[in-house]
Amino acid sequence: MERWQKILSESITEPKQLACHVSIDPDSLRPVVARYPLRITRTYLSLIREMDDPIWRQCIPDPRELEQDGLLIDPLNEEGLTCAPGLIHRYPDRVVLLVSSACPTLCRFCMRKNRMGDKRGFIKDDSFEAAVKYIEGRPAIRDVILSGGDPLMLTDDELEEILIRLRKIPRVEIVRLNTRAPVTLPERITHRLCRMLKRYHPLYVNTQFNHPTEITSLSAQACALLANAGIPLGNQTVLLRGVNDDPEVMKRLMQKLLTIRVRPYYIHQMDLVKGTGHFRTPLQKGLDIMAGLRGHTSGMATPAYVIDLPGGKGKVPLLPDGVKRQGNTFYLRNYLGEVIEYPDGEADNC
Ligand SMILES: *Cc1c(COP(=O)(O)O)cnc(C)c1O
Ligand code: SF4
Questions:
Q1: Which helix (H) or strand (E) holds 264?
Q2: Which of 78, 98, 110 to probe ligand 2 with, by most ligand atoms within 8 A of CB?
């Protein structure tokens, strides 16, 4: 067993275990965990400083997850856009391939939280072959995004098998790997992993830092190893109420990411996912954050603020002065020129 696997196996998965580390009432969390599993690596847990701080909110189960929030299991219609097992094809030239259904730490706000298994879910069986066949049959696809779950829950060898297979498809120009492991299990980023990955360039890694306190010597070291392997690093932050819904916090996060060679790519408005309503912010919050970044700091520290439109209509970047609204409804134009109605998040009421 590699060291990261041992650390992973020591993750917290039971409310009773959690109660030894943070002050929670394990009984009150049991129903939540029965519905949405608990998993936190000890490395990530150690970043918690106090109750309800930004790390706590991202990983500690919360009874509000069980509230009737009127939100959906699959608001982006990923099921409907699934063209082969584990393959989501929404845009003409790129696909998302779900190669794992588990993560080192389960984020309470996860967009796939209602559909996440607890198996590592390597799809090297027939279903992986079916996905590859689909890509091979569509020459327009030039960009394959490995996601999950977290692709780095696979072993190096399993991941390499996938990369070898994808690299046999001549029209696939780039591969992206979306992983939160640099943040939640930085020990996963080993020299061995990086030696393997760099054989499959051009390869991009997008990670997900959501708060400046997630930038530690361990996570910085993980990013340095990837960057030293020639892998351009991007970051997709999720805008989360009570975590990073503050222009100053967000600016510091974006600036600090550049110091560890990670280029901010997107800030995501929360998807309309069942069980995550308490994380949603009003759109104005995101627009204020963008206004606080644009021009006030490096353009390189200024990502795009995007909404993934309901129904799988695509991501739309929002600019502070380019938004049409009427009451609580926004009218957003997607890449096809369609105008899509989008309901706003609740204003602060707590
Ligand atoms: C986000 C997403 C992509 C990638 O979008 P980019 O804007 O190119 O990063 C591709 N497919 C699906 C289904 C997505 O949700
Ligand atoms: S790392 Fe990503 S996929 Fe995994 S639980 Fe967090 S948000 Fe979901």
A1: strand 262-268
A2: 110
10: containing domain: 3-349
Ligand 2: distance of its center to the CA of 124 in Å? Answer: 21
pLDDT in tens, 99-148: 999 999 999 999 999 887 645 445 556 789 999 999 999 999 999 999 99
Domain containing residue 325: CATH number:
3.20.20.70
Does ligand 1 come within 6 angstroms of the Cβ of 112?
no
The count of structural domains within the chain is: 1
Known catalytic residues are 90-91, 94, 103, 107, 110, 112, 271, 308, 315
pTM, full prediction: 0.95
What's the order of all strands across the beta sheet hosting 203-207? Answer: 82-84, 87-91, 94-98, 143-147, 174-178, 203-207, 233-238, 262-268, 304-309, 314-317
